[in-house]
Every structure is written in C-alpha cells, then in structure tokens.
C-alpha cells in the first residue's frame, strides 16, 4: 500500500456532542480500546460514531457498548461486527475508584471523544458523569445562545 494514501489520517477526533449537553462531567479519563483487525482502519478513515454509546462494568473491567465503527470497505469476509462490545484498557485502581463512585451517587460513564495518538493508537476519553435535569439543560442552551450573540457582536 502506498505511503501517500490520503484515506487514513492520524488526526482523527470523533466527539460525542450530545454528551456535554445531556450530562455534567465530574471526572475524565483517557483509556485505550481493544480493537480487532479492520476496526482501526475504519477509525483512521473517521467512520465511527459515539452518539448512542455507553460504558458499563463487567467483572472488574469496563466495556463500551453500542459504539458504531463502520465495517472497512476494502476488507474481505474477515470484517468486524460494527456495534460489538469493546473492552477499555484502564488501570485497576481507577476502575475500582469509579465503580465505588457510581454505586454511591448513581453516576454513569459516558464516552466523550475518540482520537488517535501520535503513535497511531486509538484512545477514548470517557467521563464520570451525572445526568442534567431539564432546567440545567435550559441554562446550557441560554449560555450557548448568549455566547453565540457575543461572538456575532465581536465580528
């Protein structure tokens, strides 16, 4: 394969835009992801979605579910399942800390961003979050609108 192939990019930055609106972030963490075969090529093409994804604990490990990585177009019959569960690579100490916080306060873990490192590894930023109430969402909308108005006035 040619080195000058422009399909793949190391500057992938896929965000979950709804997460900041729906949740109030308490703590964030960067985790590695266990991927299979052609999944990394699809991510490098920018063909992944975090919109409906969520994280959960299973036997002392964190998994992400419903994250959609589109099957790689150039692959043969060895392609991957687009919405399979994927394991997140996090230190045991951090997992235990977050699991205890979740049990105490009724929090959740939300995927915020999927990005590529300088070494070409796929990483995911996840957040320990608390759901916003309706009035909190209204305040977020007001802040966003006022910020937009200020930016218009400056230009």
Automatic annotation (TrEMBL):
InterPro entries the record matches: SmpB, SsrA-bd_prot, SsrA-bd_prot_CS
Keywords in alphabetical order: Cytoplasm, RNA-binding
Keyword Aminoacyl-tRNA synthetase: no
Cross-referenced SUPFAM superfamilies: Small protein B (SmpB)
The UniProt record lists the keyword RNA-binding: yes
Location within or outside the cell: Cytoplasm
Ranges that cross the membrane: none
The family this protein is said to belong to: Belongs to the SmpB family.
Function: Required for rescue of stalled ribosomes mediated by trans-translation. Binds to transfer-messenger RNA (tmRNA), required for stable association of tmRNA with ribosomes. tmRNA and SmpB together mimic tRNA shape, replacing the anticodon stem-loop with SmpB. tmRNA is encoded by the ssrA gene; the 2 termini fold to resemble tRNA(Ala) and it encodes a 'tag peptide', a short internal open reading frame. During trans-translation Ala-aminoacylated tmRNA acts like a tRNA, entering the A-site of stalled ribosomes, displacing the stalled mRNA.
Name this protein carries in UniProt: SsrA-binding protein
